[in-house]
Amino acid sequence: MKGPLFYAKILLFGEYGIIKDSKGLAIPYNFFQGALKISEKLSEKAKLSNQKLNNFYNYLNDLNSNEFELRLEELKKDINQGMYFDSSIPQGYGVGSSGALVAAIYDKYANDKITILENLTRDKLLKLKLIFSQMESFFHGKSSGLDPLNSYLSLPILINSKDNLEATGIPSQKNGKGAVFLLDSEMASETQPMVNIFMNKMKNEGFRKMIDHDFARFTDACIDDFLQGNSKSLFGNVKKLSKVVLKHFKPMIPKTFHQLWQHGIETNDYYLKLCGSGGGGYILGFTEDFDKAKKVLQNYKLELVYRF
Known about the structure:
CATH class of the largest domain: Alpha Beta
Structural class: alpha+beta
Strand content: 15-25%
Number of domains: 2
Number of strands: 9
CATH topology of the largest domain: Ribosomal Protein S5, domain 2
Radius of gyration: 19 Å
Number of helices: 10
C-alpha cells in the first residue's frame, strides 16, 4: 500500500496575526511531501512513525467529536500491519509536517469526507478547518487546523479572519530575478513554547496595539501586493514587516540570526520574516535579486519557494 501524496505548506504571511484574527496567506510547497505506507520490515525511522501513529490512534479513539467519523478499527488494523508516514517534510521546521499526516489520515479513513472535487463553499472550508483543528491538537496542544487544510486541498488558502477562509489563486511564477526562499536555521523548534511567549506578550497593551496597527497593516498590505502581483510595492511592505518582527518578536528569532536579519534590512539584499511560529526551523526570505542574495547568504542552506 502507498497512499496519495500530501505536501508541506508555507504560511507566507500571517504568522501570529491569524491567532488575533487578521489576514494570512498559506501556500502548498511540493518540494516536501509525505504518504502513508505499509511494510512488514520497518526501518528505525518508520518504527518511530508507526509508534506515533499508534499514539495518534489512541488520541482519536478517545476524541468524542460530533464533527467527523473515522474508521478507527481499519486504522488500528493498518497500524498493526506496519503502517507509517513516509515523509520528507522536516519536523519542527514550520512547514506543516503534522498537518500533512493529519490530512493523509482524514483522506484515507474518514466517512462522508469533504473532497476537493466538491464546490468548496466557505461553510465546507470552515467545517474542514474545525475537523483538522481537533485532529491536529494531538501534536500541538492547540491547532488552528490550517496546516492540514492546506495540505489536504493542495491549494493556496487566503485567511481573511477566523471565520472567513477562501481557496485562492496566486500569480503564476515568472522567470525574473526576485524570489521567496527558505533559509535553514539548522535547529528544530516547537510551536507551543513560541505561542506561549506570544500570548504572554499580548497581555501588554503596547504590544497589542503594535499587532493591531503595524503588524496587521503591513501583513495585509503584503498579502494584497502578492495576490495582485505588485512585486515593487510588496518588497517595500515586506521590509517594513521585517523591521517590526525584528523589533517585537526577538524571542522567536534565534539569537544567531538577529545580525543577519538586520543586515538584510540595512542593505536591501534580502528581507527575512518568520516562517510559522519561529524559534528555529525555516526562516522565510524575500529578495529582489536571488543570485545576489545567494552570494551574500552563501554560508546558509537556501530553498527556492517562488520566483517573481
